[in-house]
């Protein structure tokens, strides 16, 4: 049963130290079933991401929220040189397993996977950054996991500055978040969207916590019914999986401003709603920000 009290982590996760909401392994275990498996991310999503990376001539990509490796694997398969990091060893375990299984393919043998936290990212992977990556990606509503522990968004700002330091001049950052403006207004979260295309019955219960009259935390209780999985890939003891994840509800305007502060006024900024130019879709599920870091050479 879903918990009735707001805990920001699923029961069983460590309550001290780095707040790894995936530490109990519950979400990691069923993550790909929730997403709809590796090949099921919508074609629009793949077209958009590959389109941007190829249009900009990218070769080296840093995936700062690789999780189970879903996007990184697609990029390795498409011929990019990929460095993947994540703070959760429970999630990384699945990425590492995939790399091991495909290690005889030289593209996978070269795939670098490290544990790193956005708040200390540049120090964590300085030796891998070199002159900077052509692109840094932070997708799948990952950034919103970084909560506002001090009430002034300082860790989120620090993380964005770390992302900026990993991008080479002329390179870019692709970062997304759910449409929290709509989640706050409607109190609901869509289970199916540009990223998540589950074939299993999935329900998401949404709770919004207000602090001093301001939305400070969105908690999503996910319920995934795995009983229809014909191959029994995900099923062990229980047919129904429940897990809870909490997010900082980024308002579009405020988040855009934080990005501008991190990358400076000379960089260029574009926003997409569900991969369409902003405004094309009335209420998109996701916003994606494309920030091109200023280079004095252009
Ligand atoms: C929603 S999952 C998305 C993973 C993948 N991009 C996808 O779409 O399937 C979010 C990931 O962000 C990672 N994460 C959350 N906070 C982090 C932090 N402070 N530093 C590094 N990774 C973090 C989590 O461990 C998790 O694997």
TrEMBL record:
Protein family: Belongs to the class I-like SAM-binding methyltransferase superfamily. Glycine N-methyltransferase family.
Matching entries from PROSITE patterns are given as:
SAM_GNMT
Where, per UniProt, does this protein localize?
Cytoplasm
An example GO CC term for this entry is: cytosol
Residues that coordinate or bind S-adenosyl-L-methionine:
22, 31, 41, 65, 86, 117-118, 139
For this UniProt record, give its keywords in alphabetical order, as a comma-separated list: Cytoplasm, Folate-binding, Methyltransferase, Phosphoprotein, S-adenosyl-L-methionine, Transferase
Q: Locate the Methyltransferase domain: which residues?
A: 59-197
**Pfam families xrefs:** Methyltransf_31
Give the originating organism.
Answer: Dendroctonus ponderosae (Mountain pine beetle)
Which major enzyme category is it?
A: transferase
GO MF annotations, alphabetized: folic acid binding; glycine binding; glycine N-methyltransferase activity; identical protein binding; S-adenosyl-L-methionine binding
- The name of this protein is Glycine N-methyltransferase
> By its UniProt entry, which InterPro entries does this protein fall under?
Gly/Sar_N_MeTrfase, Methyltranfer_dom, SAM-dependent_MTases_sf
Q: Does the keyword Methyltransferase apply?
A: yes
- Gene Ontology biological process: methylation; one-carbon metabolic process; protein homotetramerization; regulation of gluconeogenesis; S-adenosylhomocysteine metabolic process; S-adenosylmethionine metabolic process; sarcosine metabolic process
Q: Which reaction does it catalyse?
A: glycine + S-adenosyl-L-methionine = sarcosine + S-adenosyl-L-homocysteine + H(+)
How this chain assembles, per its entry, is:
Homotetramer.
- Stated EC number for the protein is 2.1.1.20
The main place the protein resides is cytoplasm
